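Quick question about two entries, pasted in order.
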Amino acid sequence: MSTPPNPHRQSDDSVVATHPSRWHLPRRLYDWVLSWAETPYGASALFALAFAESSFFPIPPDVLLIALVLGARRRWWFLATNCTVASVLGALFGYLIGLYLMDTVGMRIISLYHAQERFQKVADWYRDYDLWIVFAAAFSPIPYKVFTIASGAFDMNLPGFLIVSLVGRGARFFLVAWLLYWLGPPIKRFIDRYFDWLALLFVVLLVGGFLVIKCAR
């Protein structure tokens, strides 16, 4: 008699993770995003997800990027590039929402994520750190969509906004994809568990450096 499969056992080589999201988002939506990794349209879905997440969608593209890279590790460069380009285009879309539709669409998105108070603080952060705060949001787990919309609402310099978005988003996605290519499934568990904390530590050090420079003036 064959032994029934253990539903709690998971293979390290599984393309689709079945653990709860580290972002604590609705499980059904999270699973739906991951399901695209098992289809021929995974790269297209990643592009759409990365675009949408920069302006209104709640699931970070890292979720699908990780699954796709584990399923085709030699394509890590293409997948990271795909994710980065789409995310920056989505950031531009968020910027345009803030610039032209802040009182209608923009405020609805901000309210959806209960980020009204954070949005008010963004003005002070822009005054203190200018484009660097956008870079911090692009790299870290801070809800990037709040900053893309706010950048348009505050009429931030558009070329500068796009450059820091490209650098910040690219640094994040290429780092994740490269680590998965180099170390494979074991690093996936580390990323799932500690990426948010490491990214936040990076931002703390970045802001701390700004404060040191400001105090030294």
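Here is the second entry:
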Amino acid sequence: MKDNKINMTIAILALVAAVLMVIALSFAIGKWSFGNHRYHLLIRFPSASGINANSAVKYAGANVGRVTEIRVIPRSEQTQDPNTHLYNAVEVVAEINDNIEVGEDANATIRQDGLGISAMYIQITPGFDHNSKLLVDGASVQGHMPYDLSSLIQPAGEALSKANALLSNMQPVIARIDSFSQKIDSQLPPILTHADKFLTDGDEVLANLNTPETKDRINNMLASLRVASENLKVVSSNAKAFTATIADKPWRVFWGGPTIKPPTESEVLKSNNVLPLTPDVDVNGPTKKTNSSAPPAKPAPQIN
């Protein structure tokens, strides 16, 4: 009888302990609030991947509630996300502590601290308007899609594959460029040496040309060239007249008669164009055919 009472007492104590543990666990995970009033926000997402019931809800980084339910929105009731233009397919019911004031300009998104197996949660970020209207129980909020690392890795992998293929195709070009660079390395120093020597010699030549003696020598050379060119003009004019006379009547040179008269030396030197010849001038006597418009002959000036 005494043993039965002891067993009964142990059983009752175990039952009470279990009830207390259940109550404590429920309080710890937020199932029961014991007088802590809360309100609900309906956050719509195109996808709530990683969020489950009892996922944490944070406001400015602080825990302010939890997710109580995730609902699938019927296709006919889906609205469009203005940022991504995707249709909101799920609605997350977030239970928020009653003392937390959330403005209409707040942003809600899915976050994860770090990488790997850390749990995801709903992050509510306050807006910039401190006087914005407060959200009430049952208010609907547009959630923003998080940056998915996997969606970035796949395009990066495709870009790397294309880059590898491009590098493979560029190998012959790279080999030619490398060969060309080696030739430049071997041939460029001698070229630079010769170029430097050429510049040095050029500086010396310019320095020599800049002396008064060299300038006088060049001026004298130019004056001689000018005299030679003027003499050549006169000789060419006389040769032209002689050639015309021989071509017309060759015997005039031996037996006399009218010849073709060349322009005077002064006329040749003053003119920049070809001067006409005066025909029929008697080399042994008076002119048989005179040209009244032709100027009288003048003695040729002496050219020094």
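Reply: Helices lie at 2-29, 149-209, 212-248, 252-255, 265-270. Strands lie at 38-45, 56-59, 62-72, 90-97, 107-112, 120-125, 139-144, 258-261, 278-282. Hope that helps.
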